[in-house]
Design a protein that fits this description.
single chain, alpha+beta, 2 domains, 4-stranded mixed beta sheet, globular
């Protein structure tokens, strides 16, 4: 891949760097953790040593778990023809690194992100009665209890954890699977999608 020019935000020196384009945990298992801790996206200026996060449009392709997530910093869906649809694959796109990490965290567990996003929206609306929540992120799945844990980010930057029972996921998953159609293409499944999906489910 051709190199790109980046200007250091501190010293203003222009440097060459090789942009990310494709990430595969099957070929290099270490990249999974590097995505989660963002180290894969950190660029260090060779002139002054300043480190910054750089978001490149890139594809995360998990062959073992059969999903692809396209990071689109400009928010644009991948153009048709860039990737061939793969049978059985979940194809998603996101527009920022936090959503990129979260989507991977959900899909590599074999979870249906449509059901998880609807759960997030329900929990978000519940928490707003008592907390000034600005963001809700899927954190993990308690394999012992089956509970889904979410990190609630508050307006002051603090975080609190909240859980929803696995039975809720199963109920939502049934509705999503039987009553909603998701195109076999790269789609953006987020809380806005969840709000629209709930409206459709309630209208039936």
């Amino acid at each position: 891949m051709a190199k790109a020019i980046i200007e250091c935000p501190h010293c203003k020196k222009e440097c060459e760097r090789r942009p990310l384009s494709r990430i595969s945990p099957d070929r290099d298992p270490a990249v999974r953790q590097k995505v989660q801790d963002l180290s894969l996206f950190r660029w260090k200026c060779p002139n002054c040593g300043t480190t910054v996060l750089v978001e490149d449009p890139c594809l995360y392709h998990d062959i073992a778990n059969q999903f692809m997530v396209w990071l689109a910093p400009d928010g644009k869906k991948p153009e048709a023809g860039h990737f061939d649809p793969l049978a059985g694959y979940a194809l998603r796109y996101v527009d920022d690194l936090n959503a990129f990490r979260e989507k991977i965290n959900i899909l590599e567990r074999g979870l249906d992100d449509r059901a998880v996003e609807i759960m997030k929206l329900i929990l978000f609306l519940q928490l707003q009665h008592d907390l000034d929540v600005v963001e809700l992120v899927f954190h993990d799945l308690d394999e012992r209890t089956g509970d889904f844990r979410f990190a609630a980010v508050l307006s002051d930057g603090a975080e609190q954890y909240a859980a929803m029972p696995g039975q809720t996921y199963q109920r939502v998953l049934l509705d999503v699977s039987e009553r909603l159609y998701t195109p076999h293409d790269f789609v953006k499944i987020d809380m806005q999608w969840a709000a629209d999906a709930l409206d459709l489910l309630r209208a039936e």
